[in-house]
Q: What sequence folds into this?
């Protein structure tokens, strides 16, 4: 259900590479959540860096939403960047696993395409 990979890049380097890879693969970054910054603003001390990228491919989103609006609870797709064991981790929940919870087999191909692209984006960000 979870896809993770690591890189020797810093979180900020990986974030810049992720931004570029998202765009190169015709997805868009809708929002980036900086958990450390947000929690600090709310008065909660959180010492770890964690960036959550919300990414979307509008044509694919339209396909799934036209079929089943409850899928909106799973959108947009998210890719997290954080430090663990001296490495920067890129992690995402697999769209195929999320979709399986809703039992809409007619959308499996779309979920597989999105998943393959998100994994490609993550690999490009980690190595490029």
A:
């Amino acid at each position: 259900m979870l896809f993770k990979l690591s890189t020797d890049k810093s979180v900020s380097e990986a974030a810049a590479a992720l931004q570029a890879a998202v765009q190169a693969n015709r997805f868009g970054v809708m929002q980036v959540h900086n958990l450390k910054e947000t929690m600090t603003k709310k008065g909660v001390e959180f010492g770890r860096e964690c960036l959550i990228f919300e990414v979307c491919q509008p044509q694919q989103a339209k396909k799934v939403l036209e079929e089943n609006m409850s899928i909106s609870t799973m959108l947009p797709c998210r890719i997290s960047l954080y430090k663990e064991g001296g490495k920067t981790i890129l992690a995402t929940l697999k769209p195929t696993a999320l979709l399986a919870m809703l039992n809409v087999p007619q959308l499996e191909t779309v979920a597989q395409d999105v998943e393959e692209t998100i994994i490609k984006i993550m690999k490009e960000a980690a190595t490029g």
